[in-house]
Specification:
By secondary structure, the protein is α+β, with helices and mostly antiparallel strands. It is built from 15 helices and 38 strands. It binds adenosine monophosphate and magnesium ion (MG). The site of adenosine monophosphate has 19 residues, from helix 3.
């Protein structure tokens, strides 16, 4: 570690992803697997530490595969439907678990059950269905038998000394069956690496406890412990610690003494919290190997090795933590667990829009897949590295190499899937998001349909619809020229399904005299007259933005350029005092306990391609939308269903 002239530890000497992996692997050296005998009833999910050889033959003796008679095939050479052969019974009934004592001599047969040992002299079994009794001690056979017919030979399933299962196999029910069949009660399993997981940050609160001001719930701790488990480790989540050097140092030392690997998250960025790597420098040799990797998200990743044990500090943002874990840490963990590298599941898809990327960093962008007219289309679910939900909505990710500064619109890209199968949804909705939409799609999901909603704003939705990438594009666009909603924005071949009305209005904190009791024009005048009155704007392309701009008529009050992407964020900014007013919809204002001054009722409708209107999926959506139940729920949430 170098120290800069002002005494601060030098932050991030960024190396490439490949260099980071090489340095980390070199410092770790070869992985030694520890084997432990494991009883069969505890072996599920374990990884074999060594090849397993069959200790004996399975089956251990020649046995019958059917209920019938053990015979000498030569006796039946001439048997046929019109030339039955008569055989004399030995009198012995060979059941499972009983060793026959009488041989089958020429002209004889022995009654045998499925699984019964073949008696001396017999070389075939005939099914009971193909015989007829002829008195108490003789049978008639009307079919020839091939030598070996219906006999399972000793060792035909597994032969003594044969390799049954290979080292590295993950033991499932089938493997347990094989092990049991050859009599093994214990298997050599890899002892799973114990991985301690610690979260760091003064702002963290365990899920289940309420949040104070400025606090967030610890996401990484439970998530990384689970990801460890998914990759063959025993994740032990030790909780979230404040950014306190002595406390953190003690916890890290204790965790490392107990575990094979330590994973922390947070405290890697520059600032007061940047202390974990200072502790790491004293935790054991060689200490920090890499601090700063040209990855996006994930640049502040810190990789260390202390006395042979890997210690990793993941970036604090959950998506960054997850990506760096999967890209850099999981391969090491899997090796320690004896598991093969995770199989890559990859599909090809087209990008619907240009995807910008930072030059010089390997960048990962999460995408949702939808079916377009020429194959799959990959929509970036980009909400920034702080977003956790993008994981749930995404099907996989696209990797943009360090040397590219963007991927062009229409580029064909490889998408690494989070799960092996691509689920192309039944119904794809791309456009403006509304809380009311969840009420309609919820009814469809309850019917077993899969619905994918991608929020890209009204304009983005119409473009996706024109490209044939979605079934429905929810929009709320006011045409200032005609004063009409939505219809003026449709293009050739598109039509509108009426949705609902929602009231847009000014939100403020209750009691704010600049707004309380006023109508919208008086409130607006008061806001514009007060230089300390801060507004919160909306993003370009949002229907609400058009309304804001119309209302402001060219004025740009303080806060206008603060442009969140959702109704909810506007309400949160006002509720928390980061802004004094903004425009949002009535249900969101009510949910946040804000004052509300109605400005304009807007129409939230669904654009669709007329040619697709008769489709069953759109029919199901129309039915759900028109149902009394959904209408009642929309009304309860503050929306006015459009008459249809
Ligand atoms: P840091 O690396 O500590 O500077 O954190 C970067 C960002 O990630 C901050 O916004 C933190 O609040 C957030 N963060 C850090 N740790 C966690 C965690 N365990 N769960 C959720 N967010 C976190
Ligand atoms: Mg922190």
């Amino acid at each position: 570690m170098t120290t800069s002239p002002n005494g601060q530890d030098q932050f991030l000497r960024v190396v490439s992803r490949e260099e980071a992996i090489r340095l980390f692997d070199a410092a770790l050296g070869p992985v030694r697997l520890v084997a432990e005998p494991r009883a069969l009833d505890r072996a599920l999910g374990a990884v074999l530490a060594a090849d397993v050889l069959a200790p004996g033959d399975v089956p251990p003796f020649d046995r019958s595969g059917v209920d019938g008679f053990a015979v000498r095939s030569a006796d039946l050479a001439g048997a046929g439907p019109s030339s039955p052969v008569t055989l004399t019974l030995t009198g012995e009934e060979i059941a499972c678990g009983h060793s026959p004592v009488l041989p089958v001599l020429p002209g004889h047969a022995a009654l045998i059950a499925t699984g019964g040992p073949i008696p001396r002299g017999a070389d075939a079994v005939v099914m009971v269905e193909h015989t007829d009794p002829l008195g108490p001690d003789r049978i008639e056979v009307r079919r020839a038998a091939l030598p070996g017919q219906f006999i399972g030979w000793a060792g035909s399933d597994m032969a003594r000394g044969e390799t049954l299962l290979r080292k590295g196999t993950v033991i499932g029910a089938r493997e347990i069956g094989m092990l049991a069949a050859c009599g093994l009660a214990m298997v050599p399993a890899v002892r799973p690496p114990r991985v301690a997981v610690l979260s760091t940050g003064d702002e963290l609160v365990a899920p289940g406890s309420p949040l104070g001001p400025g606090q967030i719930h610890d996401t990484n701790g439970p998530m990384i412990a689970a990801a460890v488990q998914e990759n063959g480790g025993l994740g032990q989540f030790l909780g979230a610690l404040p950014d306190d050097e002595p406390m953190l140092a003690a916890a890290m030392r204790a965790a490392l003494a107990d575990c094979d690997m330590l994973i922390l998250s947070g405290g890697t960025s520059k600032g007061a919290g940047d202390l974990t790597h200072r502790i790491l420098a004293r935790l054991g040799a060689p200490g920090v190997v890499v601090h700063g990797v040209a990855l996006k998200p994930g640049k502040p990743l810190c990789l260390a090795v202390c006395e042979g044990k890997p210690v990793v500090v993941l970036p604090g943002f959950p998506t960054s933590a997850m990506f760096t874990f999967h890209d850099i840490v999981a391969p090491v963990l899997r090796r320690m667990a004896g598991l093969p590298a995770r199989a890559e599941h990859r599909v090809e898809a087209d990008l619907p829009a240009r995807l910008p990327s930072e030059l010089g960093r390997t960048e990962f962008a999460m995408v949702s897949l939808v079916a377009g007219p020429d194959g799959l289309v990959a929509y970036p679910t980009g909400k920034g590295s702080g977003a956790v939900t993008s994981f749930a909505q995404a099907d996989g990710f696209v990797r943009i190499e360090a040397l590219a500064d963007h991927l062009p619109q229409g580029a064909r890209v490889g998408v690494d899937l989070f799960t092996p199968a691509v689920r192309v949804p039944d119904l794809v909705i791309i456009g403006s998001h509304c809380v009311g939409l969840d009420l309609v799609t919820g009814a469809l999901v309850a019917q077993g349909l899969s619905v994918r909603t991608i929020a890209v704003g009204s304009m983005g939705g119409l473009q996706a619809l024109a490209r044939g990438e979605c079934d429905l594009a929810p929009i709320h666009l006011l045409d200032p020229g005609t004063g009409r909603f939505n219809t003026p924005f449709l293009t050739q071949g598109q039509m509108l399904m009426p949705g609902w009305r929602r009231m847009q209005g000014i939100v403020y904190r209750p009691g704010d005299a600049r707004f309380q009791g006023k109508d919208s024009s008086a409130a607006l005048a008061a806001a514009l007259a007060d230089p300390d009155c801060l507004m919160v704007g909306r993003n370009q392309g949002a229907g609400t933005r058009i309304l804001i701009d119309q209302l402001l008529a060219g004025q740009r009050p303080a806060g206008y350029w603060n442009q969140p992407r959702s109704h909810t964020a506007v309400a949160a900014a006002v509720a928390q005092g980061r802004a004094d007013w903004g425009l949002t919809i009535a249900p969101v204002a009510a949910a946040n306990g804000l004052g509300f001054i109605p400005v304009a009722e807007e129409h939230y409708d669904f654009a669709l391609n007329a040619a697709r209107a008769p489709s069953a999926m759109l029919g199901a959506f129309r039915d759900a939308l028109g149902s009394a139940e959904v209408a009642a729920r929309l009304q309860a949430a503050g929306f006015q269903p459009a008459s249809r």
